[in-house]
Amino acid sequence: MSTTATMPAVKAGLSRGWIEYRQSFSTLQDFFGYFASSLIFLTIAFTLNGEWDDTGVPVGATTLAGATGFLLTMSAMVTVAQVLATEREDGTLLRSKALPKGMLGYFVGKTVHIMLITLTSLAILLLPAFVLIDGFSAPGPARLITLVWVVLLAMLAVAPIGAIIGSLVTNPRLATGVMMVPLMGLMMISGTFFPITLLPQWVQWLGQVFPMYWINLGLRSVFLPDASVAVEIGESWRHLEAAGVLGIWAVVGLIVAPFVLRRMARRESGARVQAARQRAMQRAY
């Protein structure tokens, strides 16, 4: 019986994720809401001049590699939190909970949606960059393998954080605001757009605790020339350490997030959704 209910839920989730992804292109507002950041970062990188003295690598290429990591983190963390908080308020989550294996279908649908949005955002950023940005090159076979595991581990490491925050924040309009300030702080201490070795050593140690540094390091190893490793800690891409730290974050997140989500789902009721809608209407007016 469980298997009989599970397969339709998974299929419904896959279909729902694809439909929601297609709806991202339904209006110009939706398109820019999801993908404008890619175009903005591409424009900024194209206008930057100069090179890093120690490597000769163009500043624009380094900036674009950092932008790739930033967009990946934003898509996998902030979007998850915002969508989850919004669908708690409008009753979507409650309706999913009422269906057989509904939460499984909901989870599959959101996973498909977020992954497709993330990959599209990266494609919009990267494909023109390979042609327009000096020093930013398309990965060969070996680097392509690195890109796949970095992106996969990155999403597994940061998406559960977004799910936890989305479960705790009752106002979806606060979800982005709650996350952006600490996210910007992490971006600065992680050396997202500049070598982390320019920062004080204690900041370097702090930055290496969080996944954003390792995501950016892995992506720089994929897209930048070999000479750029000269400004990294230990003059190494440290792939093993990157996989280890991102893996730890992923394991912890995938243990904690389902527990938080289950507790949040148990608390949902028609009365709570109606109260949330009334609060949303009061904010609108």
From TrEMBL:
The keyword Transmembrane helix is assigned to this record: yes
Record keywords: Antibiotic resistance, Cell membrane, Membrane, Transmembrane, Transmembrane helix, Transport
Membrane topology: Multi-pass membrane protein
The UniProt record lists the keyword 4Fe-4S: no
Subcellular location: Cell membrane; Membrane
Top-level lineage group: Bacteria
Cross-referenced InterPro entries: ABC2_TM, ABC2_TM_bact-type, ABC_2_transport, Nod_factor_ABC_transporter
Chain ranges passing through the membrane: 31-48, 60-85, 106-133, 145-169, 181-203, 242-261
ABC transmembrane type-2 domain location: 29-264
Family: Belongs to the ABC-2 integral membrane protein family.
Protein name, entry field: Transport permease protein
Taxonomic source organism: Nocardiopsis rhodophaea
Lineage, top ranks: Bacteria, Bacillati, Actinomycetota, Actinomycetes, Streptosporangiales
